[in-house]
Amino acid sequence: MVKNILVPVDGSEGSDRAVVQAIAMAEICEAKLNFLYVANINQLAINAFLSDAILEAVTKAGSVILDRAMEMVPSGIEKEAFSETGSPAVVILDFAAERNPDLIVMGSRGLGVVKGVLLGSVSQYVVEQSKCPVMVVK
Amino acid sequence: MREDSCIVVPMDGSETSILAMDTALNLAQVLDVKIFFLHAAYFDSSTDDDSDSWLPDIVTVSVGDMIEDVRRVVEERLPKEIRAEFVERVGDPAKVVVDFAREKKAGLIVIGARGLSTMEGFFMGSVSQEVMETADCAVLIIKQQKEAFSW
What we know:
The complex is a heterodimer of chains A (138) and B (151).
Chain A: E1 4-9, H1 13-29, E2 32-39, H2 43-48, H3 52-72, E3 79-85, H4 88-99, E4 103-107, H5 113-119, H6 122-129, E5 134-137
Parallel strand pairs in A: 1-2, 1-4, 2-3, 4-5
Helix pairs in contact in A: 4-6
Chain B: E1 6-10, H1 15-31, E2 34-41, H2 57-60, H3 63-77, E3 84-90, H4 93-103, E4 108-112, H5 118-124, H6 127-134, E5 138-142
Parallel strand pairs in B: 1-2, 1-4, 2-3, 4-5
């Protein structure tokens, strides 16, 4: 049974559509929604160079995105927000390995084959490495 | 997903494609939508050759028989109350799947992953990856696992 859905969010249009789709899935199977925002900053760089002000700004941007996702969820559906720092694809997979969601729903950046290879696509990496089914929303 | 929408499940008879099928059946039951099981390959029964060949069996296997095997697997597992259709198309599999989903205005494609790593996938090509990148609708990628995904 699908009881836990992981929804990585980044505030993009694609991630908004993923939230909508994930809510629909959660309604069908009465699952809990776990929203995960990953601030894409290197942990070492944070410790060494970033000032508290920058850190605070990054954290704030993340909580705005998470709040928006949480507000979209109709009442009656269980939900929780998580914020992490690091490389998004790696953090998403670590998070999934730890909490074993039954499904990951995420947006796609909409890059083609060549751009995706050059720039690296988070959704592609997650699809390849994830143990659970992944739904990529367009 | 809208009620007039449908789910497309590309079938090649592999283990993950059967998991994808079971997942789609579970989903269709809840959503009350039609499923299209699609066999997409470069060849079909018309390209099969009866003559003996020096090539190993794995290369000369009859595609017509393969399609029939897949069709049988689908029919055996299909609950009566689910609206479904088995469709054969010839061509580049990823392109056929994406075009078919567009033609039927599908809301979702459920597809099995072959489970290749980034480098293997890069060199050998991955149908599920190309479908994921080029499809207009949502794509649910099913990984190798013990059982189908239920609700």
